[in-house]
């Protein structure tokens, strides 16, 4: 069993309109844009990162906004919901705020003893704000969100699968423990995690497979402290039979990827070097940062990308 995983690092999704995406996360949810860069494989498309003040692993939602992308089709083999932790008692404040902003799909419920507010992002993606009374992580307060209501980071994520068995086995191998089952949802928790340490598996054996598009989660990333821990995880996964990519430098972390039995793309990302490697913390996310190989194309890339506040 792996002991290097610390919880979630980030969740990366796809969007249609970069401006709407930026407004939703920085103005509606009050998160901080901690990096404005481009897709490593498609430099004409932004890669936007939102999180707490420093972009702490476990708080970062990232997006590829493709202007002409078709909407995704929900189904199995995907992360169907990403959950953010908020302080106890903040749910009603958030409900009023989201109603005022015209946010779709508002639904209050309770899962595993925690009150939640579920809603939809601008591309139809599924989110929930989950009251987490014992979450002591620092928060970022932007766009008028009060200290006692601000998002602390992820609490976890929910995956929709035809068969949860193989993915459950993988999560156990990664150090997660199965805690309980309610309403057909099986919960896994990483003991001693970074706060973003809950994964729920929902079995939908007769549901169609998801089709990726705007609003779909592209991959879900798990955190390890450093490159040495990542290499240990990579070797263990390879020895177990998973097809794992070589280590890839993503400027702000190093990454490896592998496809799970249920179809979800997993990444294992390092906590180092962080988002302040090329920007002072006070100015994160302000300037367009490009991977080194794209610097000679800066003028062309900047002319193509839509402006963002």
Automatic annotation (TrEMBL):
The record places domain VOC at 7-132, 153-271
Q: Cite the Gene3D superfamilies for this sequence.
A: 2,3-Dihydroxybiphenyl 1,2-Dioxygenase, domain 1
* Alphabetized Pfam families for the sequence: Glyoxalase
Q: Which PANTHER family match?
A: RING-CLEAVING DIOXYGENASE MHQE-RELATED
- Name of the protein: VOC family protein
User: Which species?
Assistant: Flavimaribacter sediminis
Species classification: Bacteria, Pseudomonadati, Pseudomonadota, Alphaproteobacteria, Hyphomicrobiales
């Amino acid at each position: 069993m792996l002991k290097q995983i610390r919880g979630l690092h980030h969740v990366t999704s796809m969007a249609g309109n970069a401006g709407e995406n930026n407004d939703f996360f920085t103005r509606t949810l009050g998160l901080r844009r901690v990096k404005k860069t481009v897709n490593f494989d498609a430099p004409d498309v932004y890669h936007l990162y939102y999180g707490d003040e420093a972009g702490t692993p476990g708080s970062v939602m990232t997006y590829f906004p493709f202007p002409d992308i078709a909407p995704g089709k929900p189904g199995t083999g995907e992360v169907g919901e990403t959950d953010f932790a908020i302080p106890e008692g903040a749910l009603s404040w958030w409900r009023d705020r989201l109603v005022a902003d015209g946010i779709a799909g508002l639904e209050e419920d309770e899962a595993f003893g925690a009150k939640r507010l579920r809603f939809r992002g601008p591309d139809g993606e599924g989110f929930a704000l989950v009251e987490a009374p014992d979450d002591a992580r620092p928060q970022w307060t932007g766009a008028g969100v009060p200290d006692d209501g601000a998002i602390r980071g992820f609490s976890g994520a929910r995956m929709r699968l035809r068969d949860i068995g193989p993915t459950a086995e993988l999560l156990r191998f990664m150090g997660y423990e199965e805690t309980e089952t309610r309403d057909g949802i099986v919960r896994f928790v990483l003991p001693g995690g970074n706060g973003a340490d809950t994964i729920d598996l929902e079995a939908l054996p007769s549901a169609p497979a998801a089709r990726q598009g705007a609003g779909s989660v592209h991959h879900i990333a798990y955190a390890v402290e450093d490159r040495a821990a990542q290499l240990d995880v990579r070797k263990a996964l390879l020895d177990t039979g998973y097809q794992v990519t070589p280590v890839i430098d993503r400027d702000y972390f190093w990454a490896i990827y592998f496809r799970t039995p249920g179809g979800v793309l997993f990444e294992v990302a390092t906590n180092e070097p962080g988002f302040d490697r090329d920007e002072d913390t006070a100015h994160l996310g302000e300037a367009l940062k490009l991977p080194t190989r794209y610097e000679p194309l800066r003028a062309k890339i900047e002319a193509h990308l839509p402006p963002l506040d």
